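sorry to bug you again but im stuck and you know this stuff better than me. theres a chain ive been looking at and ive put its sequence and its fold in token form underneath. id like you to explain what the token line says about the fold, in plain words if possible. anything you notice is useful, everything is just below.
___
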Amino acid sequence: MKLYSGPLSLFSRKVEIALHEKGLPFDVDYVPFTQDEGYRPKHPAVLAANPKGQVPVLQDGDVTLFDSTVILEYLEDAYPTPPLYPKAPAARARCRQLELYADEILMQPIVRLLYRTESAHPDPKIREQRKQEAQKAEAALRDIYPRVEGFLKGQDYFCGVFSAADIGMFATLHHGLRLNAPKLDANPALAAWRKRVGARPAFARIVAEMADADRKLSHPLQP
């Protein structure tokens, strides 16, 4: 099994966490990446597999897949033990929806913080515009955090037991926090969940690897 990944790609790192949680051996190829140029030049294997030219791309024998959600669901079908999704249809659907929430809702304001690890833009007007957008994004995240905390329903994990929903939520929240998103101090249950999940070996490993990649690839954080 081979995974084409990005050192700071939260979607690729989601897949890596899932592979580690399932105990599956895999080779990883980190494609070329810089903060200012992005994923250029595009890796030919990624271009061949994904029309969008984005990581992650997973090759498992004759199967080649892109998109982290599709890959996680494939891994569950092909390698069901240990499970990353509940068995009951309603619980399974909720788990999928929570992972989608992390990717599509929680991620929206975080996108406006991505510039913080790039070189400062030479145009002061654009720098100021980005700063104002970041302030709006931080306000949006402060509104979203209580909703995400509510999804826990007082449980240790989003779906009662550890699942793909925890992988997706953790990956997105961690991506925001490394970009100086608001901390979780006002949301103690969510902060405790993050600490609990982050202590799992698969998560701790990826967090450490991303911190090392940040030291090598990221510029000092912008405001």
User: Anything to note?
Assistant: The chain has a mean pLDDT of 96. The chain has two domains: 2-78, 89-217. Residues 124-151 form the longest helix (28 residues). The chain is about 55% helix and 5% strand.
